[in-house]
Specification:
There is one protein chain. The chain is mostly helical. It has two domains: about 80 residues, no CATH class; about 55 residues. The chain is globular, with a radius of gyration of 18 Å.
Amino acid sequence: MNNFLAALSGILLSIMITLNGFLTNQYDSYTASVIIHMVGLLSIVIMLIVTKSKIKLQKGTPIIAYSAGALGVITIIFTNLSFTQLGVSIPLALGLFGQSVSSIVIDHFGLLGMRKDKFDMKKIIGLLLIISGIIIMMVL
């Protein structure tokens, strides 16, 4: 089930980037980002109401964990800016590459409380395949 949800997340991400790009073409990147996040806030509030869930903040949560929201805003703005010049597939592919490199570093060193998962040859091969795919998409 988790594999399915991860794949579905990737599908939704490409649709989201396309729709975000349309908004960016209609407005500027910052206005589009505000609209995107307002709609996102409204959506989660509706989900909370429908599911009768409550927001429960935990004491002792590291302050850095809350920076994920700011990173989300920055990610959307950067993607919106690159979408206008690169389309959908290249920003997604470059984003995958960036995610792969940063996750390998996080895993290797056990950063942000993650368990250590040492860097090995399989990961080098995976990165080379991603880079090859990006080069092929950009050149051909």
